[in-house]
Write a structure and sequence with these properties.
heterodimer, A: Immunoglobulin-like, five-stranded mixed β-sheet, four-stranded mixed β-sheet, 30% helix, B: mainly alpha, 2 domains, two-stranded antiparallel ribbon, 22 helices
Chain lengths: 150, 451
């Protein structure tokens, strides 16, 4: 019985973690953002696009040399002070990605971070689902364990 | 559940009893520590290219929070270089006590004051305060080499000062900002030092594990090993393993979090759990979040926005988190029973807090790990290239694995906390459900901050 309960919750966990979610269909667009970079933040600091969009980021540095590196996409661009540099890419990986400065720009440089969300932040929803499922599953499993050990 | 006594293995036992392996590690650590101070004070002001920042806040921190604390508890304290110079001064010796000295002279060979630590301060409130002091200035501390250098030097001098005024390792036990949380989280570790047979300790003449003998010093952590029921205050220094005349000290492997089965009822330890939980969440927002205003406020110490940040920081830790938790544990009978329930149930925040720190540190460390290679070749940022790695380009590591790993840590920590809450609730004779919901909400907030 304990094994069946465990399998049940493990199966539910796998479904929450990996089952495909309904996708909100939106026609791919070309989107352009002007991203101002200054010590130690981007403005705007959060970008939202749809999967399949062609995204162009115009990076404008307003003080020292700054860069932009997008985690997951592994692409980057640098901008000199007062200059604009452009980065264009196809947003073909859904999810939430940090973008960060990749040119040492001052003390807080390692924490100059923004966030790009392509479609929905599925992994967050799945993680919240796993946490909730973990707690729901905890009670029957632990009470069963307690009964079987006593 | 059963324990496996590691010290049954003669090789392990001799290795731990001998002072030379420990001394070798101590000397390497002390050299690294002094170099970190010098690098901080004399090296480049660019944090990501300075040994003090890269090796202390990336390398050491990663080792500490991802490996040392979860698996070895106070294992770091066993090789920490900070108390060494003070301890050497206090003892008037670097290695073992001289065999010809009387017991009184072992204690005061250094000729220092050797005072007892004040009774009203025999708790971890000062460690809570010292951690918060560092935490409030952490944006500057983590990024500015000379500030890191000054703080490291200050800790070394404070340890020396407390060793020449007070007996034993007062700094480690009552002041060290790091030692407080290592002690708290060491309760989850699968390693412990305990006695084998209590009766042997009861009849033991002179209690050399506490008072010292010709083979070693009395417990530097002011702990009588026979009374050890949890890891919190045992620094794994191995002195009792050396001094015990009856071979009654064991290093055991045990199940994770064994100490949490008997929850603490101390308010200072309960607040340490809130401080650590709250700090992890605030750090995740400030350092890893996209909010520039928050980073500005945290970095510009002394400005109005920093004072607001500090007030919010302290408000979250001392008012918001504890009062919401108090609501979860509230059932008015009298203050003492409420306090006992509050402190007992706060034990469930220990695994949660540890896994919050693991999840936070994974992001912080994997993003900045490539600086380690560059800094190794050019520790002062002076253009050296000692090992040919000075020009390794910055590149975040394992970004595709990061989110699943953080989820695993946070959800695992939540379930671990639920299990702990269930035990604690049984002790407190109350329901664990409100506390588990509290942990769930905290976990969801942390997931939102990190993912």
């Amino acid at each position: 019985m304990r094994f069946i309960l465990f399998l049940l919750f493990a199966g539910a966990g796998l479904i929450v973690a990996f089952a495909p979610l309904p996708v909100r269909l939106a026609a791919p667009q070309a989107r352009t953002f002007q991203l101002d970079a200054h010590q130690f933040a981007y403005s705007p600091s959060e970008l939202y696009v749809n999967p399949g969009d062609t995204v162009t980021i115009q990076l404008v540095s307003t003080d020292v040399v700054h860069g932009l590196y997008i985690d997951g996409y592994d692409i980057s661009v640098e901008a000199d002070p007062g200059q604009t540099s452009t980065l264009t890419f196809l947003a073909n990986k859904p999810g939430s990605f940090r973008f960060r400065c990749n040119v040492t720009c001052g003390a807080m440089h390692p924490f100059m971070i923004g966030k790009l969300t392509v479609g929905e932040n599925d992994w967050l929803y799945r993680s919240v689902g796993l946490a909730t499922l973990g707690i729901i599953g905890f009670f029957p499993l632990s009470s069963f364990l307690k009964r079987s050990t006593s | 559940m059963s324990r496996i006594e590691l010290t049954r293995n003669l090789f392990i036992k001799k290795l731990l009893q001998s002072r030379y392996p420990q001394l070798t590690v101590f000397i390497i650590m002390l050299a690294g520590y002094i170099f970190a101070i010098l690098a901080g004070l004399l090296g480049t002001p660019v944090g990501s290219h300075n040994f003090s920042i890269v090796f202390v806040w990336i390398t050491w921190w990663a080792i500490l929070i991802l490996a040392a604390v979860p698996f070895f508890g106070r294992g770091w304290c066993a090789v920490c270089p900070i108390p060494l110079p003070g301890e050497w001064l206090q003892r008037g010796a670097i290695l073992r006590p001289e065999r010809t000295l009387s017991e009184a002279k072992w204690k005061s060979k250094g000729g220092w004051l050797n005072l007892r630590w004040p009774k009203f301060l025999r708790n971890i409130w000062l460690q809570n305060i010292s951690f918060l002091l560092l935490a409030l200035f952490s944006s500057v501390l983590l990024t500015t080499p000379n500030v890191t250098g000054i703080v490291l030097a200050a800790m070394l001098f404070m340890a020396i000062g407390s060793s020449v005024i007070f007996e034993r390792r007062s700094f480690c036990r009552y002041l060290c900002p790091i030692g407080g949380f290592i002690g708290l989280y060491s309760q989850t570790a699968p390693v412990e030092l305990r006695i084998k047979d209590k009766q042997i300790c009861v009849t033991c003449d002179g209690k050399p594990c506490y008072n010292g003998n010709e083979n070693g010093y009395g417990c530097p952590w002011d702990v009588f090993p026979a009374g050890l029921t949890k890891n919190t205050y045992c620094g794994l220094c191995m002195e009792c393993l050396r001094t015990c005349p009856s071979d009654n000290i064991a290093i055991n492997l045990r199940p994770f979090a064994s100490d949490l089965e008997k929850p603490s009822t101390r308010l200072d330890e309960a607040f340490k759990a809130f401080i650590m939980l709250g700090s992890a969440m605030i750090y995740a927002a400030v350092l890893l979040g996209p909010w520039g205003t928050l980073k500005d406020a945290a970095y510009h110490v002394g400005t109005n926005s920093w004072f607001i940040y500090a007030a919010v920081f302290l408000g979250i830790i001392f008012i918001l988190l504890p009062s919401l938790f108090a609501l979860c544990t509230f059932r008015f009978q009298n203050f003492n029973s409420f306090k006992k329930r509050f402190t007992t149930l706060s034990t469930s925040l220990i695994p949660l807090g540890l896994m919050f720190w693991v999840a936070f540190s994974l992001s912080f460390v994997l993003t900045n790990a490539t600086y380690i290679l560059a800094s190794f070749s050019d520790p002062l940022g002076l253009g050296w290239n000692l090992f040919g790695t000075a020009n390794v380009a910055w590149q975040p590591l394992l970004t595709s694995m990061l989110a699943p790993a953080q989820t695993l840590a946070l959800v695992g920590g939540l379930i671990w906390s639920a299990r702990t809450a269930q035990n604690a609730a049984r002790e407190a004779k109350t329901s664990p459900i409100p506390v588990i919901l509290y942990c769930l909400i905290a976990t969801i907030i942390m997931l939102w901050l990190l993912l």
